[in-house]
Structure formats: C-alpha cells, structure tokens
Amino acid sequence: MEKQTTAGTSYLDCFKGTDLRRTEIVCMTWIAQTLSGTVVGGLTSYFYVKAGISTDDAYSLSLGQTAIGAAGTMGSWFILNKVGRKKLMCYGLCVIVAGGMGIPSKPSTATSWTAGSMILLLSATADFSVGPVVYTIVSELPSTRLRAKSIVLARNAYNIINLAFVNIISYRQFNSSAWNWGPKACFFWAGINVLMNIYLYFRLPETKGRTYADLDILFANKIPARKFAKTTIHSLVDGTEKAQEGQAERIVEDTKREHDLVA
C-alpha cells in the first residue's frame, strides 16, 4: 500500500504546489526545536559548573533533570490532544529565562542555584512540549504520498542547523577560553525563540482533530494557518461542489448554444 502511494514521486515534488508550503512548515518546525535553547538542557552539567554550582551538585541536578524530562514526555501524551499541537509548541518556546542570573558580575550561591533551577524548568518544559510535539507535527502535516520524503528533508534541515550552528555556538558560549557567556547565553536563545514563535504563529497550522483528508482540503484551499482550527471542512467541500456544479452547467449551456448554431 505504501509503495503504491509513493510510487512516481520524487523529492522535487515536495517543492511543488501546496506541498511546498507543507515542506517549509515541517522543516522550520524541526529547526525551531533545535534553536529553542534545548541545547542548554543538553549541556546542563557543564552549565551548572559555569553558573557556580559544585560538580557534585551539578551531577545530582543532571540526574534529577533526566527524571523530570521522562515525566514531562509521558505527560505530553495525555495533554497533546487536549491543548493542541500549535499551542503546546508556541508556549513551550516561551520558557527560557535563566539568562538574568548571569547579569551579576560576582554571582552568589543564590543566583547560581536559581539559574540551575531555571534550567531544570527549561528542560521540563521542553520535554513536555517542544521535544515530543514536533514528531507529531512533522508526521501529520505532509501529504500522504510525500510524507516519508518530507520527514527526511525536515530531519536533514534539523541536522544541518544543529551541527553547523547550534553545537558550535553553544560550546563557544559556555567555554571559559572562548566567549565565556555563562548563564547570559540564554538571552541569545531567548531572542531566537521570539523569532521562531512569530514564524510559528503565522505559519504553523493547528492539526488537532483533523484527518489527513481534512488537511489536504485545507491546504488545497490555501487557508491561512491561523484559521485552520476554526475553518469547517463542510463549507469548503460545499463551496467546491457548488463551483463544480456551476462549471458543469456552463459547459452544458455552451454545448447547447453550439448545437443550436450548427442546427
């Protein structure tokens, strides 16, 4: 069945017609995930030490973060269909506020632990929202016949940005022999989050409660992303059917006129 559906398609088809919009959205959504600052959560032990926390406490916090992340991911399974993909994605991008703890020139024990706690909050939020919801979005948005190819393109876009930008930048931000930004590095990722949220607000449609056929109709009718959740498929189908009926009636009338002229 899958081979029959994808037969005759190529990666070039992902950039044609309405599929171009769908490919763009899935690629940018996965890029938004890696640019959301989750890299800070992936370097927590290093971050904690740079924030002024002892190595033993940094190790303990990292273990706690793993448990919190697992709980957050499992929690997202139950909330995803209630809140929706777009809300969970956009709200999840809003929580990265640890940068303020890096402003004091001489960080105290209190500011160090506050920064560490905020990173735990960041990781918990990411594992509850941005982390798992992306996999739902990129599997639902592409058309059925191009789904596999669209996911491949989106994941490669993620990998390119992650390897060529995120990994290089993040290590330089925290490394004391490089930029040595410490917690202030979170301001950088927060700025990118603002840009990504603006993009997602205008371009990412809400797919909660939609079938693949529904999404095909919505994209074919070029419905704006912000109106996906409220647009009724019935009205679009009725409009299409009426347009087709009108076109058929005009063809019949034209055919009659031509027949009368010949007669």
Commentary on this structure:
This protein is mainly α and 263 residues long. The protein is 71% helix and 0% strand. It has twelve helices and no strands. The longest helix has 30 residues. It is elongated. The mean pLDDT is 80.
Topology summary:
Blueprint: H1 2-6, H2 18-34, H3 38-42, H4 44-50, H5 55-83, H6 85-92, H7 109-128, H8 130-140, H9 147-174, H10 185-203, H11 212-220, H12 233-262
User: How much helical structure, as a percent, in the residues?
Assistant: over 70%
Shape: elongated
What is the CA-based Rg, rounded? 24 Å
Name the poorly predicted regions.
none
Summary tags:
mainly alpha; elongated; 263 residues; single chain
What's the short version?
The protein has helices spanning 2-6, 18-34, 38-42, 44-50, 55-83, 85-92, 109-128, 130-140, 147-174, 185-203, 212-220, 233-262.
